[in-house]
Amino acid sequence: QVQLVESGGGLVQAGGSLRLSCAASGRTMRSDNMAWFRQAPGKEREFVAVITWNGGSTYYADPVKGRFTISRDNAKNTVYLQMNSLKPEDTAVYYCAADLFRLGSSEREYDYWGQGTQVTVSS
């Protein structure tokens, strides 16, 4: 059974940086497309970024373009989200997700989910 475990969240001041990690276990994820989503208080979960199975392509939501970078290390079965120039509106629980076949911005397209890690950006 696939397990995804996020880490790296925390409290940071506006303008600061954080690097989130999502470690997978249960099987190799080197063939899966991996994504990050986030959910702010009182809001629906929204797409942040996705990376294809081989790292060849990445896609970002408009609010994070130019500030966030998604990457992966298939040897470590881990995907990362480097977040720079953080803003208070980036405050949310961040989730990683995986799917073997689908690649998109809808949460319905992903079969596997982590439990989330809290990111809080103070102004």
3D structure, described in words:
- The chain has 123 residues and is mostly beta strands.
- 0% of the residues lie in helices and 50% in strands.
- The protein has strands spanning 3-7, 10-13, 18-25, 33-39, 46-51, 58-60, 68-73, 78-83, 92-99, 112-113, 117-122.
- The strands form two sheets. Strands 2, 4, 5, 6, 9, 10 and 11 form a seven-stranded mixed beta sheet that branches. The protein has a four-stranded antiparallel beta sheet with strand order 1-3-8-7, with no helix packed on it.
- The chain is globular, with a radius of gyration of 13 Å.
- It starts with a strand and ends with a strand.
- The mean pLDDT is 95.
What does the radius of gyration come to? 13 Å
Give the overall average pLDDT: 95
Total number of beta strands? 11
User: What structural class do the secondary elements suggest?
Assistant: mainly beta
Q: Helix amount, in percent?
A: under 10%
Secondary-structure element pattern, one letter each: EEEEEEEEEEE
How large is the share of residues in beta strands? over 45%
Supply the number of helical segments. 0
Low-confidence stretches: none
Please outline the major beta sheet. Answer: 7 strands, mixed
What general form does the structure show?
A: globular
Distance between the termini: 40 Å
